[in-house]
Give the backbone structure.
Amino acid sequence: MQKTLDTLKQKESTLIEKINALQKVIAEKQTLTERLTEELYETKQTALQLADSNSQLLEEIKVFKQPHTQLSQQATQISKSIQYKKSHRSIERLQEKPSQDSEDFSKNTWLYD
């Protein structure tokens, strides 16, 4: 009876170890599945952006192939639909050169004599 009890306890401990190992494998697979799902979503978003850019480029190509009369109308439509990034740089202003009077000019040209 004691021998049977010992073997059952041993089988129970090995089964618990196997269950723990299987739970670890399941957790790893779930983590991998989540990561792959995120990557798939990002890839789909990128594909949609590329398709949108591609369709805009195709529209631009059509505009360039059309006669000149329709060109100006569609070019304005496309330019309105394209979103440009705005620059937030400040405009650099050039210093204005001081205007030289004839007297100042003669004073500054003494090296030319």
Notes: The chain is about 75% helix and 0% strand. The mean pLDDT is 78. The CA atoms of residues 38 and 84 lie 29 Å apart. The first helix runs from residue 2 to 65.
